Amino acid sequence: MLANIKxxxxxxxxxxxxxxxxxxxxxxxxxxxxxxxxxxxxxxIVLDNDVIGYIEKINEFLSNRENKTS
Length: 70
Hints:
alpha+beta; single chain; 30% helix; 1 helix; 3-stranded antiparallel β-sheet
């Protein structure tokens, strides 16, 4: 029997009073391809400095992209 697979379906990063927060949704799929959990919403505070750097890099990329298209 295979373990169910969890797939991230969306995520967002934002700054809160507690720090950088990642909010995301995921679905869980069983070995037959059936969705057993759909759109489960989860949040966490990011404590890993490398991950915070990745979030900053994505924000920089998106800001630069928008400034080029304005």
